Amino acid sequence: MSRYLVIGLGKFGSWAARTLESLGHQVIAVESDDILVDRHAEFVSRAVQGDGTDPVVLRAAGAADADGAIVSMGENLAASILATVALRDLGVRNLYVKVAGDAEARALNALGVTEVIIPEKEAGVRLAHRLGASSVLDYQPLGEAHSIQEVAIPPPWIGHSLRDLAPRVSHGVQVIAVRCSLTDHVKVPPDPDATLKDSDSLIVAGADEALAKLPRA
User: Fold this and answer.
1) C-alpha–C-alpha distance, residues 53 and 7, integer Å
2) DSSP state of 51
3) CA dihedral sign of residues 57, 62, 68, 70
4) Cα separation of 217 and 201, whole Å?
5) Three-state DSSP state, 179
6) What are phi and psi of 50, to 5 degrees?
7) Average pLDDT for residues 78-101, to the nearest whole number?
8) How far apart are CA 6 and CA 28, in angstroms?
9) Tens of pLDDT along 19-70?
């Protein structure tokens, strides 16, 4: 079990905190708004009312012993930077910071955080890829110009196995899993000798350019 500190219990922070707790981790939440503290206290190991940028508050909350921290302080860039610096000074090395846009992301990346999250941007990009290509069922960026996508089975592939198709060799993409839409069962890793059906979908990873060249339904 790992211990995580979540600073800010807005929509993003509260969902992150609740999900980590549900996955069996210990979550300590720090929030200045007493109403939000009361609202989410039952879903985390400990909820602390206080200033998430204050090193004294963070130390008292147990930040020095945390395996990682999520900073989710709305669009307040100054507060996010102060919280990040305070956590760094307390020895927290794995820092995940939510920001509003690319300019803010550059500022936080300059501090050497583990990851900067721009939820609205990421959700918009995923939706656009789904709408822009009818066979793309889901899209998750994976570094620059690479992604993980869930795609409908291309008609020419129906009735064949992954071993026969060899998509890694023929198309330069890796099939991570096969999902059956009838049962919602996901096979990870996929059976290379199983026959692909029109009710299946593929979860594939690779360069966006290579994925775009896959046969489309």
Assistant:
1) 9
2) -
3) negative
4) 11
5) strand
6) 170, 175
7) 95
8) 6
9) 999 999 999 999 999 999 999 999 999 999 999 999 999 999 999 999 999 9
Residue 54 lies in a domain: yes
* Helices marked H in the chain: 11-22, 34-40, 55-61, 77-89, 102-109, 119-132, 162-165, 167-170, 208-212
39 & 113 share domain: yes
* Mean pLDDT value across residues 143-164: 89
User: Could you tell me what percentage of the chain is helix, strand and coil, using 3-state DSSP and rounding each to the nearest 5?
Assistant: 40, 25, 35
Say how far apart CA 101 and CA 122 lie, in whole Å.
10
Contact between 108 and 83 (Cβ < 8 Å): no
Chain Cα centroid distance, residue 46: 23
Report the first-to-last Cα separation within the chain, whole angstroms.
43
Structure-token pair, residue 101 = 């846009």
Are residues 203 and 148 part of one domain?
yes
**How many helices (H) does the chain have, and how many strands (E)?**
9, 11
Nearest alpha carbon to residue 153 among 191, 186, 179: 179
Give the residue numbers spanning the domain of 168: 132-212
Residue 92 confidence (pLDDT) above 60: yes
Domain assignment present for 126: no
Element at 70 (helix H, strand E): strand 68-71
In the three-class reduction of DSSP (H, G, I as helix; E, B as strand; rest coil), residue 175 is classed as strand
> Does residue 178 contact residue 200 with C-beta atoms inside 8 Å?
yes
